Structures
1.
Amino acid sequence: MTTNNSNSPTPGQTNPANQATGPDAETERPVFTLQRVYLKDCSLEAPHAPHIFLEKQEPQLEFQLDTAEQELGNNLVEVLIRCTVTCRFGDRIGFLVEANEAAIFEIANVSDEQRTLLKGITCPTIVYPYLRANLSDLIQRSSFPPFHLAEINWEAFYQQKQAKMAESAATRQ
C-alpha cells in the first residue's frame, strides 16, 4: 500500500517548505554547502633515510602555506590549501612533505564580497583540519616523531595575502 504524504513533493515538484514567501519571495536564500573534501596531491621524501633516524640533533622545521581557488561552474568552487614542510637536521633534510588538500563548495545567492570572503577565510578554515590530520598521519607513519601543524587564523592570513597582492600590483605600476 502506498500513501502520499501531502507535505512531500512528488517527482518534478518543488517542496513548498523550501520556497521563500512574503516580501523576500523574489530573492533566493544564500547557499553555502560543503560538497566534498579530498587530498588532491601528497608526497613525502626522506632522502637520507635510514641514517637520518640516527640523528641526535634537534630538527629545524620550515613551513610554507598558500591557498588557491578555482571556479567550477554551477555555483561550485574548489578551494585548495597547499603546504610544504621541510625538516632539517643541520644541512641534511630529514623529510620534505608537500600536500594539497582541497574541497568543493557550493556558494550561491551571496554578494561578490561575501563570496570572496567565504572562499578566502571560511573555506580554508573548514579544509585545514583535514590537511593537518593527513600530514600528521603521513609523517608519523614514516617513522618520524609526532608532528602537528599549528592552528591558523585564516582571517589574518587572508588579510596578509590581500596586502601582498596589493603591494605587488602597486610595484608593477
Note: Helices lie at 112-141, 154-172.
2.
Amino acid sequence: MPPTDASADAGTAAVTECGPAPADQSGTRPSPDAGEGSTGTSDLPGTDAEDTLDLRLPDEFIALLAKERADAEKQTDVYRQADADEQADAGEQVDAGEQADVDEQANVEKHTDAYEQADAGGRTCAHAAGRTDAQVHTHAGRRADALERAEAGRHADTEGKRSRGADAPPSVSSTQTDHDLLDHDLLDHDLLDRVADWGPTVTPVGLFQFVPVSVERDLPLISHWMNDPAVAAFWGLGGSQNATEDHVWAQLAGDGRSIPCLGVLEGTPMSYWEIYRADLDPLARHYPARPHDTGIHLLIGGVADRGRGLGSALLRAVADLALDKRPACARVIAEPDLRNTPSVAAFLSAGFRFSAEIELPAKRAALMVRDRSLRDLL
C-alpha cells in the first residue's frame, strides 16, 4: 500500500538540532517533527488535526477483482450451457428409448390377437385370412426349399453312416420325407408327446401356453428379438430375417425332434422356445444321455421382461410341464453358454442343477439338469 501524504512528509522532514527550537518572530515555537510546509499544529490524539489515512483500495486491485468476477460469471454460464445440453441429450435419448418401446409393444400387440383366437388345446392358431396368390406361391417355394434341404441331409447322413457305422445317430433333418410334415398344422409331434397339446399352465407370473411357430405369422417378431445385441451375441441369428427363417425351417422340416414355439403369457407372445429331444440331438455325443431326455432353449423377447425373475419362473413351469406330459422323460436338459451368466443363474433358480462343463462345436456350455426325482427338493 503506497504511503499517505502524511507519512511521506514525515519521512522527509529536515533533521534539526537537539533542544528547543528558537522562537520565530511571532513567538511561536515550531514543532520538532514539523516538516517543510507544516502548519505547526500538533498531531497528538485529542487535538484538532485532520486524519489523512486513505482507506480506498487501489484502482489496479479493484480492476483485478472485477476481472476475476467476470471470468467466474463467464465460467458459470459455460457450465449452465453444458448442463442444458446434457439434459437435452438425455431427453432425446429417453424419447428414442420410449419410441423403441412403443414400436416393440406395437409389434407384439399386432400378433396378440391371432394368439387369442387359439383353441384351448393351443394346437392351432388363427391364420390371416385372404392370403394373396403371391404369398401362397412364396410359402410353397419355402416348403420346397426346406424339403430339398431335408432330402440332401438324408442322403448325406446315409453316406455318413457308411463311413461311420450303422449305429451313428442321424442328423436332425435326415428323416424328413413327407411333404405334409412341412405344414405346421399337420406336424406329428409323437417324439415329444405332442407339445402343441400340452395346453396352458398356471405359473406364478400368469397363465402360460406354448404356441408352435408359424413362419408366415411369427417370423418378423422372432427376427426382431434375434436382432437384440444381447440376444445375437449368443444365438448368432442377428441381421437379415433369412438367418432366423432358415433356423426355424430346419426344425419344421425335421421329424419332430425339435419344436419351435412362442411362449404366450396372459395372451401376449413374449418368448421364443425350442423343445427338443436331447437324446436324439448331436448334444447327446457330448454328455451321458438317457432315453427321452428333453432339452430346452429359451429366449425372453422384451428387454423389460428380463432381469426380474420371469425367466426362472417360466423355466421351472416348463420343466415341470415336460415331466408331467412326458412320463418316459426322467430329466430335462439345458446347455446355456458359460459366458451367459444371467441364463445360467436363471436355470439354477428354476431348480436345475449344474452337472458339468461341456465343449460343444460353437461354445463351451454349462450342462444343466432338472431331475424328476429331485423336482420336489429343488
Note: The chain has a mean pLDDT of 74.
3.
Amino acid sequence: MTPFPAGPTAAPTRSSRRPALVAAATAALLTAVTSGLAVTAAPSMAAACTGYVALTFDDGPTPGNTTTLINTLRAAGVRATFFNVGQNAQSNPALVRAQRDAGMWIGNHSWTHPHMTQLSQAQMASEISQTQQAIQQATGTAPKLFRPPYLESNATLRAVEAQFGLTEINADVDSQDWNNASTDQIVQNASRLQAGGSILMHDWPANTIAAIPRIVSDLANRGLCAGMISPATGRAVAPDGATPPPSTPPPSTTPPPTTAPPTTPPPSTTPPPTTAPPTTPPPSTTPPPTTAPPTTPPPSTPPPDPSGVCTATYRLVSSWTGGFQGEVTVSSTAAISGWTVRMTLASGQSISNVWNGVATGAGGPVSVRNAAYNGSLSAGGSTSFGFLANGSSSPAPSGIACSGA
C-alpha cells in the first residue's frame, strides 16, 4: 500500500507494570521466532484484557512472507486480520487456507489494489466480486470485511460494499511500514492503539514481522489484547470464542525465506526509468595473444535462454470511455529470481498507474519488471501485475514477451 493521510493520533495512556512472568514469556517467544524454532502458541490472555485492538495486515498473501508472518503471530499467541488482494489469493489459495487454519480472519482488499474512487460503479463491483469469489473458493467462506486500497472511499463505493454485505474498515493507526519505517518506529506507532481501534500493517515488510513480539508486549502492558473486527460495528472486539491460535504449523507451498523479506513498499505509481547496468564487460588491458586461439569448439550445450523461462499473458479487466484496466500474468517454466515483461502500447494509449511491478516507459514500448516482493517464482509458479491506461482498450498491447533471471 502506498502513502495515505496518517490516521488520527490517539492520546497516550498510562502504562502499568507487567508481571515478570509475562515479560519472560515474551522474551522467550522473541528468541524462538528469530531462531526459527517451532513454538506452541501462548495461552489466551482474554481474562486479563481490559480492551481489544485489531492487528491487520494488507496486500497478501505472498509466497515466503505470509508463512513467516503467520508463524510469528502464532508464536506471540495472537490472531490478526488479513486483508487479501484478490489476484494474490487466486494465485496462492494454499496460503489463504493457511491464514484460515491458523485462526486468522480474512478480509477483502480488492482484486488489483486500484484507486477505487477513480473507478465506475461497475468496476468497483468487479473488484470486490472477484475477490469475494477467490477467497470463498479457497476457504469456503466469503469475507465480511472490506478495506479500500489507500483507505480511499466515497458514497458510491460504500453502496457497492453494502451490495455484498461488507463492512468497510479503515485504520485508527498507521504503522508507516509501507514507508520503510524502522522496527522501532513501527512499535512506537503501534503504542498509540486504543481499545476498539485497528492498526494498518502489511504482509511483506521484514521490520513489521520483527516488531510483532514487541507490539504484543506493549499491548499486554496496557491491558490490551489482539481481537477480531466486528462486522456489525467495524471495531475490535473479543475473538470469537476466545480461541487461541493452533499450535501446529500452517501448511505452506513455499519454504520460509532464508533472507528477510524486502522492507521497501511496492510503488503505486510508475517510477522514473532506471538505467540498467551495462551488459558488456569493460575493455581488457591484457595484450592480445601472440599465438592463434585454440581450435577446440565451444560446448555443444548453449546456456539457457532467459526469454524462454517465463511467459506473459495479457487480459483486459475492464474498459470505459477514455481508459481501461489491464492485467498481465507471468508464468515460469523454471525457477527464476526476477522477471521483466516487454510490450508495446498502441498509439494513443499510455499507462498511468502500475501495481505489483515497476514500469519503464508509459507509451509505445514499455517494460515492467517485478516488484521487490514477487520476483522469485518456482517452476510452474505465477504472479501478475496490473495497470491503468489512458486511451482506447483496442487494440490490445502487442509483442508481449517475458524474460527471466
Note: The CA atoms of residues 183 and 207 lie 5 Å apart.
4.
Amino acid sequence: MSSEVSEEVSEKLPARSDVVTDVWTGWYRDHRGAEAIVITADGRSVTTRVRGVAYTGGSFALLHAAEESGGLPLTGCVLEWDLPLPVAVDGDTPQPGTLSCLLGLGEALPDGAPERVDLRLTLHWGGAAYESGVTGGDFDRALGRILRQLPPGARFARRLLAAA
C-alpha cells in the first residue's frame, strides 16, 4: 500500500479516539454454495465465520482459520457486504452513503495463500456510484481511488478499518 494514498485517506477521516467494533452482514459464496455471514472489525483485525470455522486476520485479504481448524487462509471464494459510509462536503452535515464491498479470493497456491485477491468497492452517495475498480486487496488504496472522484472538499464522515 502506498503511504501517499494512506495519508490521503487518513487526512480526510475524523480522528478516532477509541476502539469501536463494527459489525456488518454479508454473503460468502464458493463452489459449494452461498451463506449469510457476519463480519466484525475492531480496527486491528477482521473476523468472520464460514461453515462453522472462524477466520481472523489483520485485513480482509489475510483471513486465516484458527490453528485448531487447520490455520489455512480463506481461499476460493467471494465475500460481499455493505457498510454505512456517510460523506460530508466542506464541513456540511454528513449525508448517508453506502460502501458496497466485493472481495474475490482465488484458489489456494501450494503455500495455501490465494492465487489472487481482487477487491472492488463502490460508494453509493448523493445519487451516484463511485467505483474503485479492482484493487489487489488494498482497502486504503481502493478508498483513495473513490475519494479522488468525490467533489472537492468531500471527506468520509467516519473511520473504517485501520487494517482492512
Note: The radius of gyration is 16 Å.
